[in-house]
Amino acid sequence: MAGLAGLLAIPATWLTGCSLGDDMIAGMGSEVETAPPHGMSTAQLPGPDDHHSKSNALVVTPHQQSYLNALHAAGVAPSSDLSALSIGSYVCQARAAKQTDQAVWDFIAPLVRNDVEDSDDTDGARAQTPSAGDVHSATADYIRIATERLC
């Protein structure tokens, strides 16, 4: 039970901005910015060095993009890149906390299930409810790929 309590503390650490390592998504919140004012194009915004400019574009590092590309290559269809990066961050934090494989699985599987259920088909229609096998496979892929490419 103590292991589960420690694992549940991980999201709080992530949300407060604390980092367990340089290779995780530390600072991800600083890379996600707000949208430009309504009716203004991105061409009208100040450049990237202007700290007053804001955009809602998710900025990912090459390391994070490698992880996202590997997920897509494995057939995992996250609801968004931000969701996939969040799940990957949780995997890395659980690994850094030296959680058992089962504890990592138990924590990540519900996150993946929710994400798989939220993903849309390519035509924008609501996807069918995923099977238990689909969720199991996606969970295994998330854990494996995050461990190999992101952590």
Task: Provide a descriptive summary of the structure in words.
By secondary structure, this protein is mainly α. It has a domain at 61-151. Helix content is 55%, strand content 0%. The protein has helices spanning 2-15, 28-31, 62-73, 81-96, 101-118, 132-150. The protein is globular and about 40 Å long. The two termini are 25 Å apart. Mean pLDDT is 74; it is low at 11-35 and 37-46.
Q: Can you give me a brief rundown of this structure?
A:
By secondary structure, this protein is mainly alpha-helical. It is about 55% helix and about 0% strand.
Structural key phrases:
151 residues; mainly alpha; 6 helices; globular
Number of helices in the DSSP assignment: 6
* Poorly predicted parts: 11-35, 37-46
* Terminal residue distance: 25 Å
The radius of gyration over CA amounts to 17 Å
What is the average of the pLDDT values? Answer: 74
Please report the total strand number as a whole number.
0
Q: Which structural category fits the helices and strands?
A: mainly alpha
Characterize the main sheet. none
Q: Strand fraction band?
A: under 5%
Helical proportion? 40-55%
Broad shape:
globular
Q: Secondary-structure element sequence?
A: HHHHHH
